[in-house]
Design a protein that fits this description.
single chain, alpha/beta, seven-stranded parallel β-sheet, four-stranded mixed β-sheet, 44% helix
Length: 396
């Protein structure tokens, strides 16, 4: 019998983490859970520990770790509980780990992603910020560590599935790639009314079930801006070879337009378990649990350009990629601060873009600001401080 693959899930209580556990539950003969981590949903993490009995559970703070240890001991569960940012990197790079699912949202996921890359893991990347913030540094770690990097965002997984396994052939084949976007909940809404959007409205995605931060990013199309940046690094493409098209049905997850004008696309139901299962089993295929497409029930597949008035943030991707090295990290930090301010009611929905654009304009990174993790974290800190200042000017 083949030894089961040991999986570390960073961000196990989020939507991607939960979907990963769902896929794993269908293949217990192939996989076992080695480590789980959570930011704030400690009760849910406890329940996952009861079900999966990992070797490690990681939480942010010592107090939460102590509470979790107590509950686990009451149930006679021998799970070692660790706390702090360094613990995430420890479990991600652990020599007994085969697969790392990187599903932590935000720049906080960069360090453990780098640790997994340097340790040569099969790295399933759902944390797009690792590439948006780290870029060249992260890809260099992947190459030097010999890691197998597999994208989990549905769009990037789709592109990856349309390309040959021989990466050297990618540039010879690609004319450009097209990232599809659903358009979110405000695709047809009058842009003049967006200032009054509530957090609940922004989080009501028509096709996907996601966390609140990612849902807001989808509503502003900043998620697609970040995905453009991610695609630039994943596929080593210049920005002008990356395009975005709105496809409301979310059936075509993205496309590769080849030099001979052929178009290769990956289609499927909008279910994150499909790219997760592909990442876990690549180059094989395993059951994901997702429903198969019912072709007869599909009335149409439609496409639209992205409205620059409704989605002004999308263009910030190309602006940041054209800017000084580190500009994409500035944009990501600003967006995290702006979305957090919107979700807590401090600023209006339309102010998210104003904060992002103002921060990107105001902070031009000097050379060397993206050459190391410490330099990136300092740039991230400086960008957040500047963004919070712009948030105060937009406070309702």
């Amino acid at each position: 019998m083949t030894q089961r693959q040991r999986v570390c899930i960073l961000g196990s209580t989020g939507s991607v983490g939960g979907n990963t556990l769902d896929v794993l539950s269908r293949h217990r003969d192939r996989y076992e859970v080695f480590a789980l981590s959570a930011m704030s949903r400690i009760d849910e993490l406890f329940e996952q520990c009861v079900t999966w009995r990992p070797r490690y559970a990681v939480v942010p703070e010592a107090a939460a770790a102590q509470r979790l240890r107590g509950r686990l001991l009451q149930h006679d569960l021998r799970v070692e509980v660790l706390d702090g940012a360094q613990a995430l990197s420890h479990v991600a790079a652990h020599p007994d780990v085969d697969v790392v699912m990187a599903a932590i949202v935000g720049a906080a996921g960069l360090a453990p992603c780098l640790a997994a890359a340097r340790a040569g893991k099969r790295l399933l990347l759902a944390n797009k910020e690792a590439l948006v913030v780290g870029g060249a540094l992260f890809m260099r770690a992947v190459e030097e560590g010999g890691a197998l990097l597999l994208p989990i965002d549905s769009e990037h997984s789709a592109i990856f599935q349309c390309l040959p396994e021989d990466r050297a052939a990618w540039h010879e084949r690609i004319d450009h790639i097209v990232l599809t976007a659903s358009g979110g909940p405000f695709r047809t809404r009058d842009p003049a009314t967006l200032a009054s959007v509530t957090p609940d409205e922004a989080c009501a995605h028509p096709n996907w079930v996601m966390g609140r931060k990612i849902s807001v990013d989808s509503a502003t199309m900043m998620n697609k801006a970040l995905e453009v940046i991610e695609a630039r690094w994943l596929f080593d493409l210049p920005p002008e070879q990356i395009r975005v098209l709105i496809h409301p049905q979310s059936i075509i997850h993205s496309m590769v337009v080849c030099r001979d004008a052929s178009v290769l696309a990956q289609l499927g139901t909008p279910d994150m378990r499909v790219p997760i299962a592909y990442g876990l089993s690549f180059p094989q295929r395993i059951e994901s649990g997702a429903a198969q497409l019912d072709w007869l029930a599909l009335s149409q597949l439609s496409f639209e350009p992205a409205d620059a008035r409704r989605f002004p943030g999308l263009q910030l991707a190309w602006a940041a990629l054209r800017g000084a090295a580190g500009s994409t990290a500035v944009l990501n930090a600003a967006n995290e601060e702006a979305v957090a301010a919107f979700l807590d009611g401090t600023i209006g929905f339309d102010a998210i873009h104003r904060v992002n654009a103002a921060t990107l304009d105001a902070l031009v990174p000097e050379p060397g600001r993206s050459d190391s993790v410490d330099a990136l974290f300092e740039l991230d800190r400086e960008s957040r401080e500047l963004a919070r200042g712009f948030v105060r000017t937009c406070t309702r």
